[in-house]
Amino acid sequence: MSEIGGYKTRQRERILRFLTENAGRHLSVDEVVDHLRGQAEPVGKSTVYRYLDRLVEQGLVRRYFLGEGGGACYQYAGDVERCREHFHLKCIGCGALLHVECSYLDEVAQHVANHHQFTIDHTKTVLYGLCETCAAKRKEESVCAG
Amino acid sequence: MSEIGGYKTRQRERILRFLTENAGRHLSVDEVVDHLRGQAEPVGKSTVYRYLDRLVEQGLVRRYFLGEGGGACYQYAGDVERCREHFHLKCIGCGALLHVECSYLDEVAQHVANHHQFTIDHTKTVLYGLCETCAAKRKEESVCAG
DNA sequence: TTGCGTGCAAAGGTTTTGCATGGCA
DNA sequence: TGCCATGCAAAACCTTTGCACGCAA
Q1: Residue at minimal CA–C1' distance from C23?
Q2: What is the pLDDT of residue A143?
């Protein structure tokens, strides 16, 4: 259930390389396709979808459903283990996705598990709100408006 | 920013009534449309989409992206003002929505604000995971499988 | 050579949008 | 009366699928 199994092709090599080189980020299918199109030889979108599905199945890559309407995001699993341990903050204002590694927040999951009998899935959970910049912007606006 | 604001129409009334009558469940757009079609007067799907968007914006209804490929689900949020103050836990297994009032979790929001310069919006944030029952069920299954 | 992988295009499903009409206030 | 809301259809998404060809093993 874990080994690659399939053929090794130029396309797959380049898709996987892009994922590993951006292990810290969440990538959309379009980002992958666009990156590869920027190179000498583009890769078909269906190929990207199919290979990503496969990688997810194998556990090498994790799929996230973060965006509101948008599509899925993918992240190389090498760093996903780390992502399992921390929270994701998504700014409603600018859309930025922040990975927060913080021992205090780690305790939160423990607390919820122990006191509320609930096991948080960090790969599915995103805290929505406003980043510093956008919060300041809104504050300013509301002062002007009110 | 919180009041209904728009016109009161037959369609909106019926959409909202269906949501409140099923406050314990999460409903897909098609479920809403199908239910209303079953009545004397159907309601257009775009009307449902537009009004649900509006209700979500106002915080009266929550939108969830649970299914893998599927569409969004909606659930009546009840008293929004109260919900602004606490966290929500959504079980991936059974869909239950738990409102958690807890002073410890209140501190979390404070911590994120103070240490990570991020203002959490409780009306938009949901912690996904497994409730006690579903966690036990999964554990059982994995024992059987492996 | 065998069979999987690729890429294009078409199909599938969900959500959004344009526009004329209808209805609330 | 002046907008806003509605509904239909079309468009705009994201994703999957069918099929002929290409390529790894």
Answers
A1: B9
A2: 58
